[in-house]
Description:
This protein has no helices and seven strands. The chain is an all-beta fold. Strand 1 and strand 2 form a beta hairpin. The radius of gyration is 12 Å and the shape is globular.
Amino acid sequence: MILKNLHTENKPVQTQLLFEPKDAKVISLQIAKGETLKEHVSKVPALLVCVSGNAVFTDEKGIVVNLNSGVYVMIEENVKHEVKAIEESDFLLIK
Length: 95
């Protein structure tokens, strides 16, 4: 299966739940070129894995991570963060 094919709507930011284990979630996330997953807070720690594309993760602690294929970032709970896509980008978000 191809992650890109999960996102069929014409929206700048799309998510698709892949499966939901008992106490966790794995979410496919796509952000269109030039768009931003706006600043927000996660209530639980999360792992964001870039599958394809190019994006920049930033958080309120000043952490900046350039995300491209195979690069990941650990997201701390209760820390404001955002992701800006330099080009169309696909991610797996594991919570």
